[in-house]
Amino acid sequence: MTPSPEPSILPPPRRISRATLIAVAAVLLCALIWGTTWYGITWQLGVVDPIVSVTWRFGLAALALFAGIAVARRQLSLTRPQHLEAMGQGAFTFAVSYAFTYSSEQHVPSAIVAVIFAALAFLNLTLFRLVHGQKAHRLAWAGAVLGVVGVAVLSGSELISARLGPAAGLGIGLAALAVTSAAIGNLFAWRAQRAGAPILASTAWAMAYGTVMLALYGVVTGAEFRIDPSPGYLISLVYLALLGSVVAFVVYFWLARTRGYALASYISALTPPIAMGVSALFEGARFGILALVGLIVVLAGQGLIIRAQKAK
Fold it and tell me: Three-state SS string across the chain, please?
């Protein structure tokens, strides 16, 4: 008589939670939007002063977000401490960071700027550890490092073929300041969250404060406030303001509040592959085997950061 098989002692496979799926979808949405904005920014350069273009972008974004909050009848007011945190967020996230970003793309290709922004996850982990003593899981650190390494490998051929000239040092320095400023802005965003600021109102006010600071800087430096009436400039302005700013930043800060700034900032490691795909589609760029290897490393890092959230 044939003995009956032993019942399986293996545990059933664990299903991915709905919250994790939503977080992954949010990461991909932001990466898709921001991955295309690098190309959109190049449409803003040439005729209008970069400071003025950034001012128009976040001014339009703030107005759209304020209008959306009013239509939805959501809370718009902030307390004084919340306003102070929104002001700091606006200064570093929307004013300083993007002013340096636009300026850096005048000296180096946008793909190189995107590569430098891949360090945002690592900078966030470092700053939150130094300033607020927050300890991150070792998987989060490993994922952040993989993000930087993967994007560097992915973009290696681009960095070599760019044949960087003397002016490139300035562009790279400006991009490094931009990503550092973005990380500091995340600290203020986290402090606004701790102060109980609603995410929509806090983001809207931060964009408004950033717009005012950019406008004042433009006035002081003698920038000419004008708009290029060409279709390319106007289309890119609307896209960068509504999708690249309102939608992407609201989703980003929601993700940061619910899943942590390490996971949210890893979006900056996923945008270069998309930016390169856009470049290949619209600019005829070609990428080899290194691009595939780098993309695999980037996605592996993303998986480690997601696992770090579950491990915590």
Answer: CCCCCCCCCCCCCCCCCHHHHHHHHHHHHHHHHHHHHHHHHHCCCCCCCHHHHHHHHHHHHHHHHHHHHHHHCCCCCCCHHHHHHHHHHHHHHHHHHHHHHHHHCCCCCHHHHHHHHCCHHHHHHHHHHHHHCCCCCHHHHHHHHHHHHHHHHHCHHHHHHCCCCCCHHHHHHHHHHHHHHHHHHHHHHHHHHHCCCCHHHHHHHHHHHHHHHHHHHHHHCCCCCCCCCCHHHHHHHHHHHHHHHHHHHHHHHHHHHHHCHHHHHCHHHHHHHHHHHHHHHHHCCCCCHHHHHHHHHHHHHHHHHHHHHHHC
CB 229 within 8 A of CB 275: no
**Any idea how long the chain is?**
312
118 vs 224, residue with greater confidence: 224
| CA gap 65, 166 in Å, rounded | 41
Residue 199 pLDDT: 93
What is the C-alpha to C-alpha distance for residues 290 and 297, in angstroms, rounded to an integer? 11
Per the listing, tokens 């989703």 go with 251
pLDDT in tens, 255-310: 888 887 767 777 877 787 787 778 777 766 666 677 677 778 877 877 777 677 65
pLDDT of residue 115: 75
pLDDT, tens only, 178-236: 999 999 999 999 999 999 999 999 999 999 999 999 999 999 999 999 999 999 999 99
